[in-house]
Amino acid sequence: MNAQSQTQIIGIEASIFGSSDQPVSTTIPSSLKGKDIINFLKFSHSMKIPDGACIIIMFVSETKYAVSYRILDNDKDLSQYLSRQKRFQILLYPPKMMIHIHCADGRVSIREYASTTPAAKIVEDVCKIFFHLNHHIAYALYGNINDLSNPIPQTKSIIEFNPSISDVWLLRRFWIKASTALNDESDIHFNFSHAKNIVFSKNFSFRRYKWEDLIAISLTLDYSTYEQAKMLLKKEKKEISKLKKNEKKMKKEKAKKKGKNANDDSANQHKHKSVIDVSHLPVWFILDKKEKKRKNEIIELVRNYENMNILELKLKFLKICLENEYFGARMFPVRCKIPFTNSSIQECNVCFTENFYCLLKKDTEEELFKVKLTYVRKWKPTDIENMHFFFITKESRELYDLHIQAQNVFTILDYFTSLINFLKQQSILGKQDDTVKSEKKVVARMDKTSLSDIISANNINDYIPEDEDEPEIYEMKNRQDSNISKIDPPSKQTVELLDIEKLCAKSEIDLTLSEYTDYYDHITGYSFDAIPYQAFHNNIIQTGCNLLKRVVFQESLSPIADATVWVQGCLPEDLLTQSVLSWLLQGPSDTIDDAISTVSNLTAYVFQDKLCPLDAFVALNYSRSILMHYARQKWRTIDFGELAYQADETLGNFIKTITQIIKRNMFPISTLIFEDTCDFIPDSLSMLHVNESIALNLFFATIAVARAMCNAGISADVIQPILSTLPVVNTYDPVVAYSLSDILLPLVNSTINNEIAHQALISQPHIAKLDINSISSCITELYNYTHYLTTPVAIFCKTRSPRLLNTPFTPSTVPEAAYIFQIARESAVTLWNIKGGVQSALAQEISWAAIEFYSLFTEAARDPSLAEALGGVFKFLLDCLEHSSIIIKDYHEFEDVLDNFEASEAVLSTLIGSNEDSKTTMSLIAMESSSPEHRSIALEECSKEIDSQLRSLTDKCTEEEISKVSDAFRVFSLMILSIQNEYINKGLSNSGKKDAASLNVTRGKLTDCGNKLLTVIKDEKMDNDERRKCAQDLINDLREFSVFTQELQEATREKEIVITKVDTSKIKPYEQVEKHD
């Protein structure tokens, strides 16, 4: 009923671009999609619309007589524009367009593009391929070379700017940091031509530059030597004088004919244009009578440059221009009140430099006010004429509002946003220098040392590069208590990498053409025309990845229907697997998240069943990457603390603290929060499906790596026992995923550095492009995910999971049984880590019962006689899960998830029962659950803070200094115990029963050290000499602790299985590698 009430009958006037046919006027329902509109016009009105044409909607403003254009996608309708107008003019544009791209030096590139290609893509393409320019983001396309205030928006196509233009100009939009790009000859030539056009323009403010040298360099480039310049300029003078005489005669003749109505301004304008065409001097120089008298003096300057080559002259010209930070910068006329003054609203210019937001006096470069770009916290337009910039100052964190008024503030918004993106890219490129990177790391560590920094909104992950998408440099939200975060390196997984064509290696055909998939078919019998492996499996990889990509980017109108068509073309022979795929197609699809999850699970099962291990890994890793990219966009819009607060107040406060400390490892944290809120928030359930699909693809990709290593003869005796525990129909198993990633991570790291093992692994026949580093990245991500889910933070969240607290339903299909198997194994993991493992017996019982149940269920799908035995096992599993849910409900406090036998967790347990601030305790629990790298950073920062305070001791320490030292030592001691715990738990210590004693010794030493530290900083009666001596002793003790932990960490990092021999005899023929071949 809602859809019918919203649908309206609207009028359209359609015409074909470039056609002389009369426009067609008709009416259509507003709910008609773009593709259907084209079909309607083609078949109902016999319009000769070219195949693949796109629809352009034209909007005409009634007040300002402005015209704008929008492309209507094939899957969108016109209902979204009904609020703007009721009758639409649409233009049917061909699928491709021919564009003439001009540059300032006169070169033209004629190129063909898809009509909907964004301007940014065209700029990047032309800069790299035709003009060979660096920093393509600094350039823009312009529809009119004389109107540099109106560039074609980067995100829009040219036809959305103006469908009728065929000539555009590629010019530099941002001259900021231009000097860093002037290394190549092509950049120097291109930028010089544009800079010269700016310098020779009529309105150029030449008095703010070394204009004499600019003219001299230009003359040197035109005439080469001083003598030629002097001689040719004399000829120019004669020609110009003749032009002036002719123009005077023409002016008199026109005056006689038209009387006094002759337009003197147009005559002067014509005169100036004629002079420019002849003269090699700037027009502002010719018009300035005072400076014009210095012509001979300027010509003399040519002597200084006549011995320089062309490239040096152009580079010198550019450097003189760039000495002024406002060169080439846009000046936006605005009206505003100058901040921190009592002046009224006045007219001025807004300008942006590399570091500052500036307000300049009108028609000058006199600064009225400026603020650092890093202090700008938020910017937003309220309407077309008003915009607000919110900023802080160095002295205060209070937000100040700078309200500006302009004719069209959206031009300022577009320029400022593009500038920020440009500065971000340049900063990222600058970080590629290892020296600069290390220096920034040292500075950052020296700045953030106190516990108040480590456990507050600062992100301790900033120092560890991970395979993550980074947040925007300037977040458009109100953050009053922190600076704009520093720019991190670009992520390894981006949308640009998600190109299916890049998966297939065109150069490896010779390796696989002789391999065939199957010589027998159940329908046709034996086949003598065998299908090459390349052709068959290349199709599975490309079509499967393309299907998932279209679903994720919402390009598929019916994801489930498309998935059904795809899977019918690559059905496996096994009937059970066919049934599983058909059940997967019946999965949830109410929302786009559900559809993505269902389709990705389907493709994952087909990839791991039909492809050889290495090809399966590439396809599954691609799926994992594109799903992770999609999920991260969603996570950024979610306040997980607020979401968790809806489930439980304590959980909400806990998660808010965690997300302030750890902002990058959001995959496991988001999964936990979605799981805790999935029973009453539908969106959480849908996103939980996406996260679980990521985990499934990650797990299947790891299994593919394990099988490939076994086939290559690499540590098969270690890996094969784990693979033997896998069921007939694989599903996500948190226990196997944990153990498999724990074994494979050091193996993969060793394989990368071992030439024989490396060669044995990649020499297996495969058709997909394989990057050995992507294997390490994938295994590391699964390792971090599974190991985080066993930390106190994860167990605390798991105790509130409705899936673990409620009895599961009776399954009727294999996917439903797999879901129950996963819940049971998660319950086992949770029980195993509660209260130091007091429920480990029940955890083992549930784990074994889950394996037996799932194995029997899959076998019962083939053999119905096993149904009775299956019923008994399922009843036993349900009884165990009911018992588990009762126990988990009882163990849901902080102290219940900590192990008092672990030294670091015992300290945290003591803090929970004390009068310590709960937020501090939560922060310490979150830090103890973080990765070893993060704990190492926190340890180092705290050590520096304590060392600095001890070296600068005075007679009396302030309460703030005492608090800083106390907090820093608390984190320092906790991290030492945590690192030593990890060293012992990984089996790296050979001390046996001495492990517990060594931990107690360390704990005792830390206690003594802490008491001495408090005495030194609090005891006011202590003699200064004695205080300095005690401080030096404490510094020495801290160094000993640091050296001790560094040795433990080094031993932990060096835990790699050294591959001394690879059993190459275990490398199977390719027919044996494939499951069905």
Verbal overview:
It contains 41 helices and 18 strands. It is of the alpha+beta class. Among the domains are: 9-94, Ubiquitin-like (UB roll), CATH 3.10.20.90; 331-426, Pleckstrin-homology domain (PH domain)/Phosphotyrosine-binding domain (PTB) (PH-domain like, Roll), CATH 2.30.29.30; 801-897, no CATH class; 903-1054, Four Helix Bundle (Hemerythrin (Met), subunit A) (Up-down Bundle), CATH 1.20.120. Strand 11 (346-352) and strand 12 form a beta hairpin. Helix 27 packs antiparallel against helix 29 (772-788) and helix 35 runs antiparallel to helix 36 (918-928). Mean pLDDT is 76; it is low at 1-5, 260-273, 433-536, 1056-1061 and 1066-1077.
Write out key terms for the chains shown.
1077 residues; alpha+beta; Ubiquitin-like (UB roll); PH-domain like; seven-stranded antiparallel β-sheet; five-stranded mixed β-sheet; 41 helices; disordered N terminus; disordered C terminus; FERM_central; FERM central domain-containing protein
Low-confidence stretches: 1-5, 260-273, 433-536, 1056-1061, 1066-1077
Number of helices: 41
Radius of gyration: 36 Å
Distance between the termini: 53 Å
* Secondary structural class: alpha+beta
What is the fold's blueprint, element by element?
Elements: H1 2-6, E1 9-16, E2 24-29, H2 34-44, E3 54-60, E4 67-72, E5 87-93, E6 96-102, E7 108-114, H3 119-129, E8 139-142, H4 158-161, E9 167-172, H5 185-199, H6 211-223, H7 226-258, H8 264-278, H9 283-287, H10 289-292, H11 295-300, H12 310-322, E10 332-336, E11 346-352, E12 356-361, E13 367-372, E14 376-383, E15 386-391, E16 400-405, H13 409-430, H14 434-447, H15 451-454, H16 509-512, E17 520-521, E18 525-526, H17 533-552, H18 559-568, H19 575-584, H20 592-610, H21 613-635, H22 640-647, H23 649-661, H24 666-677, H25 682-711, H26 716-723, H27 734-753, H28 755-762, H29 772-788, H30 792-798, H31 802-805, H32 814-833, H33 840-860, H34 867-890, H35 903-912, H36 918-928, H37 932-951, H38 959-985, H39 994-1018, H40 1024-1053, H41 1070-1073
Parallel strand pairs: 1-5, 6-9
Antiparallel strand pairs: 1-2, 3-4, 3-5, 6-7, 8-9, 10-11, 10-16, 11-12, 12-13, 14-15, 15-16, 17-18
